[in-house]
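Subject: for your reference before the review

Hello V.,

The reviewers asked for a structural picture of the protein, and I figured it would be easier to keep everything in one thread rather than splitting it across files. Below is the amino acid sequence we used in the manuscript, unchanged from the supplementary table.
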Amino acid sequence: MKCIIINHNTRFKKELASLFSEFDTQIMNYEEFDETKLAKADFIVLSGGPIHISDKNDLIEEKNFLKKTTKPILGICLGHQILSLVFGSKLEQFKEKKIEFFELELFGMKGQMFYSHIHYIKELPKEFRLLSKRNGFIEAMEHKTKPIFSLQGHPERSGEFGEGIKTLFIQRFVNTSKK
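And here is what came back from the structure prediction:
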């Protein structure tokens, strides 16, 4: 299967590529966004990163593509926030950056998820189903009709639990969308 990671200048690029190394994985820098390349992907991963995304003109091509595509998408940290904005939510900001591990439970799996962020999503987009919320921010969500799953944490920095999240994404969102 072909995976394209849209890199938003994440500092965990090597870890993210390693997490998806069992697939034919390519990394596309967000500044070189190319919809024709994405059309060839079986699934897309939106990386975390420190870039600005809240202005309506930020990442406009990428946001338009994400709104209309039916491809399976995994949003990680900033990717989770991008998807939230695309589907009508807004960004909130903590007073200081949060870097920590928290216990997360999803689909019967429980483990430690690594978080590194200053922005968060407080309100669930209407087209999404809440999977986990803690301390006022949405940790994980899935689209109600499209194969889209996103989380505020970093599975690429969360060891075995992160591997489990990847496997869950492939089984629940990628493999089922091919049927």
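For the response letter, the relevant points are probably these. The chain has a mean pLDDT of 91. Helices lie at 13-19, 35-38, 60-68, 78-86, 159-177.

Happy to draft the paragraph if you're swamped.

O.
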